[in-house]
Amino acid sequence: MNFQRGRRQEDPEINLIPMIDVLLVILIFLMITTTYSKYAGLEINLPTADAQQAAEQPNEISVVVSVQGDVMVNKSPVGARDVESISLALRRAAGAAKDPMLIISADAKATHQSVIDVMQAAQLAGLSRISFATQHSGN
């Protein structure tokens, strides 16, 4: 029995607004709790080798700086510690070699100024290829 003859029955309706609210709350929660990784550079794995020490090249100039600041060029001591004397010794050691490599072996406790003096002397002598020698740690 239909007592409401004049009234039309309404179709059921799905209300999506509460579902959208819940999904937005979940989305905001995930955005806040997620951590993002930021890389400042590239991550690379360098190859390793157990190579023996290379033999001394004829166009290499070896410079040793001691703790006291004394300088030796190719195993011969330089009398003075000033830049001009070191530069003269480097020019003599370079001779007629074409673009020689300067290898600086400074003591770990040598002053920074003595190493800078050797680098400045190399610049005055016209040597542009400079390298620093290190030793392997005993691990």
CATH architecture of the domain at 60-132: 2-Layer Sandwich
Give the overall form.
rod-shaped
Mean pLDDT: 78
Helical stretch count? 3
**In sequence order, what are the helices and strands, one letter per element?**
HEEEHEHE
For the secondary structure, the number of strands is 5
What is the subunit organization of this protein? single chain
Biggest sheet, spatial arrangement of strands = 3-2-1-4-5
Rg for CA atoms: 37 Å
Low-confidence stretches: 40-47
* Biggest sheet features: 5 strands, mixed
The structure class reads alpha/beta
Q: Helix proportion of residues, in percent?
A: 25-40%
Task: Tell me briefly what this model is.
With 139 residues, the chain is of the alpha/beta class. It is 31% helix and 15% strand.
Features:
31% helix, rod-shaped, 3 helices, alpha/beta, 5 strands, 139 residues, Nucleotidyltransferase, domain 5
In words, what does this structure look like?
By secondary structure, the protein is α/β, with parallel strands linked by helices. The protein has a domain at 60-132: Nucleotidyltransferase, domain 5. 31% of the residues lie in helices and 15% in strands. The chain has helices spanning 17-33, 83-94, 112-125, and strands at 60-65, 71-73, 76-77, 101-106, 129-132. Strands 3-2-1-4-5 form a 5-stranded mixed sheet, with helices on one face. β4, α3 and β5 (129-132) form a beta-alpha-beta unit. α2 crosses α3. The longest helix has 17 residues, at 17-33. The chain starts with 16 loop residues before the first helix and ends in a 7-residue tail after the last strand. Residues 40-47 have low confidence and may be disordered.
